[in-house]
Structure formats: C-alpha cells, structure tokens
Write a structure and sequence with these properties.
There is one protein chain. With 207 residues, the chain is α/β, with parallel strands linked by helices. It has one domain: Isochorismatase-like (Rossmann fold), CATH 3.40.50.850. It has helices at 27-36, 131-137, 150-164, 182-194, 202-206; strands at 2-7, 42-48, 69-72, 75-78, 104-108, 142-147, 169-173, 198-200. The strands form two sheets. It has a six-stranded parallel β-sheet with strand order 5-2-1-6-7-8, with helices on both faces. Helix 3 links the parallel strand 6 (142-147) and strand 7 (169-173). Helix 3 packs parallel to helix 4 (182-194). The radius of gyration is 16 Å and the shape is globular. 44% of the residues are buried. Keywords: Hydrolase, Metal-binding, Pyridine nucleotide biosynthesis. Belongs to the isochorismatase family. Pathway: Cofactor biosynthesis; nicotinate biosynthesis; nicotinate from nicotinamide: step 1/1.
Length: 207
C-alpha cells in the first residue's frame, strides 16, 4: 500500500500569500502529476489551520517582528507573519491543486499555545494529529511526501514519519518541494537522508 502525503500546498505558502515560499507554486503541477499517476493507493494532504492570534504569530507578541526568535509556552519559537488562519483564503489549498484526487486532509497547528510543523504531531511532541494512526490502520507500507516548505514542515513530517511509522518506507520527493532558505534546505535534506528518508525525484516516484 503506497501513500502520497502533500505538505501544506496552500495559498499562504505560495507567491501572494502571507508567508510565501520562493517558487512555492511550482510544486503544484508536479504534485498533480503524482496525484493523477495512479501509482498511489491513497493521497493525503496536510493543511496549516491556525486560529486567529496564534502564539507563533509575531503580531501576538508586542514588539516582535516576523522572522525574529521569541518564546512560546516557555520554548524558543520563530515568530511568523500571520498565516493560514482558519477559513481564510490564505489557508486554502492552492486553487490549481487537484483536490478531487485527495482522499484525506489532516489539519494541524490549531492549538494557539504550540506551533505544529509536522503533519503528525505538535512541535512539543505532546499532541498527535492522528495521521500516523490513520496510515497504520490503512496498512500503508510506503509513504512518499513533498510540499512546502522543505526546511520546516516537510522535514519535520518526514522525520516524524520515520519515527512513528516504523517499518514503513519513507521517501522525500525533492522536485515536488520548495524551501525557505537554500542552506536550510540543504541541511534538511542531509538530516532526512541521515535519518533514513529516501531522497528521490518525481521521475523515480512515477517509474
């Protein structure tokens, strides 16, 4: 059983969004080819789904500016621009993404007191989203993942998949993903590879 997990391919992370990843929209046609390929028994997507005033927003911390480090619930936290607020256009999956081919959407980041990069659990690792249990119940043996952003939500999702889905082959599709910082992307890919994540491109995924 093969599954494809699309990470946060949302308006907010694409050009014109509140927290745009450079060239983030360029993952959409690659993702659509993967969705439409028939190679996957299940296609899933994660969706950042923050309440207004989330604690990771710089606007929730007087004097803080986006992309400064701050504190959230006693732990260091990158301060982000307001983004992917529930039920706003910024939070919607990209309009060109083939959402009809997506079987399951996992929302995340709903607790205002903790950020949630991974599709599997909050950053403090205390609260699970339920995605790992869902994949285990479906009997998934291979998980390919891609999306936005490589150096944050994609990386943390991949690392959690390796840890939480033991025995499942986990692969990162590089050309179906984009990151925020080139050095961060390189480091993220190296970390994923070291932890046992396969690094492939979409041609390999579709072969």
């Amino acid at each position: 059983m093969k599954a494809l997990l699309l990470i946060d391919i949302q308006n907010g992370f694409c050009p014109g969004g509140n927290l745009p990843v450079p060239d983030g929209d360029q993952v959409v046609p690659v993702a659509n080819r993967l969705i439409d390929s028939g190679k996957y028994d299940m296609v899933l997507a994660s969706q950042d789904w923050h309440p207004a005033g989330h604690g990771s927003f710089a606007s929730s911390h007087p004097g803080k500016k986006p992309f400064e480090m701050g504190m959230l619930s006693g732990k260091p936290q990158m301060m982000w621009p307001d983004h992917c607020v529930q039920n706003t256009e910024d939070a919607m999956l990209h309009p060109d993404l083939n959402v009809d081919g997506i079987d399951f959407i996992q929302q995340k980041g709903q607790n205002p007191a903790v950020d949630s990069y991974s599709a599997f659990r909050d950053n403090d690792q205390a609260a699970l989203t339920g995605l790992a249990a869902h994949l285990r119940a479906e009997g998934i043996t291979q998980l390919d993942l891609c999306g936005l952003a490589t150096d944050y939500c994609v990386k943390f999702s991949a690392l959690d998949a390796i840890e939480m889905l033991q025995g499942v082959t986990v692969r990162f599709i590089e050309d179906a993903s984009r990151g925020i910082d080139p050095a961060g992307v390189k480091a993220a890919i190296n970390e994923m590879r070291t932890r046992g994540v396969g690094i492939i491109d979409s041609k390999e995924a579709l072969a």
